[in-house]
Amino acid sequence: MLSYQHAYHAGNHADILKHCILTFVLNHLNSKDKPYTFYDTHSGSGIYDLLDNRSCKTGEAQKGILQLFHSNEQNMPELLTQYLKLTSVYLEQNLYPGSPEIERALMRSKDTLILSELHPQEIENLRENMKKHASQKADEPSIQIHNRNGWEMLKALTPPKTVRGAVLIDPSYEEEKDYKDAAETIISVNKKWSSGIILLWYPLLAYRENMIEGMLQKIMDGVRQNNRNIEISRHELKVFDKNEHVEKKLEEVLEDSSKKNPPRLYGSGILAINSPWKLKEEADSVISFYENEILPKKPL
In 3-state terms, what secondary structure has residue 82? Predict the structure, then answer.
């Protein structure tokens, strides 16, 4: 299924969590002079226009990154400050950088960025955006763009020759098969690329809670069979109370004569395999700040 387009959701709360953690991992890799390879399995367009009618229709950026950008909150965690500094250059042009653009912007000329996207329009946008913004800095990384299934790409191209590196896995989860593919791919890739940092984004959906937990447990059990001492961290940002925000399957919504809104996230998470030192503390500080200072306060 190729109906998903991230333009509807760019800059929402899930992107804030995902891209803060992505920024931390890239800065961690940059802290050493040695080159690295970064994979992005579900790349999307790379850059999004926040004035596009798809973004305006959902209003998710307005409630997410734009609210954060204009909040003027003091004492933001350092990681959140770094993320906002990076994105502000784009926000001032009514744009939002997706993960490939954040990767391109932070990586160095000695590093390799490998992107994969299957959607026919998204990959054309990705190619154009990477080409258009490539001249903005002197030390541009080597970029490879594949019109290819992300799961297949990652299994085929790992381990990288450079050994050091990471991957961001960010499927749409439109199909239930994505949960199975995520678990099987991560366990397989970790087995042959034991040092690679693996970041898996996942949605928090009440009606798929058992499926999500099953996927995460399968991954954690699988990689611990490869290395019982492997560092794993899990980070979740919740913007709704799960008990007050029960989603339905899309098919059920379409059959509902009251025409309620389609299912939406009550939050999202990142599972980090080979989690870098201090990622948990830094990510937790962002989550705590966002939940306590940015989200609307509930009436007493």
Answer: helix
Other Cβ atoms within 10 Å of 258 Cβ, number: 5
Model pLDDT for residues 6-27, shown as the tens digit of each residue = 767 888 999 999 999 999 999 9
DSSP class of 257: T
Count each helix (H run) and each strand (E run) in the chain, helices first. Answer: 12, 9
- Position 156, amino acid: A
Average pLDDT value for the chain? 89
Residue 162 has which token pair? 């450079």
Helix, strand, coil percentages in the chain from 3-state DSSP, rounded to 5: 50, 15, 35
Q: What is the DSSP letter of 162?
A: T
Amino acid making up residue 95: L
**Ramachandran sector of residue 103 (left: φ over 0; alpha: ψ -120 to 50; beta: rest):** alpha
> Which three-class secondary structure state does DSSP give residue 130?
helix
Distance CA 116, CA 167 (A): 11
Sheet arrangement for strand 165-169: 142-146, 112-116, 37-40, 165-169, 197-204, 267-273, 232-238
Show the tokens assigned to 107. Answer: 């990586």
| Angle at which helices 13-30 and 279-289 cross, to 10° | 150
83-86-90 Cα angle (round to 5): 125
In angstroms, rounded to a whole number, what is the distance separating the alpha carbons of residues 204 and 264? 9
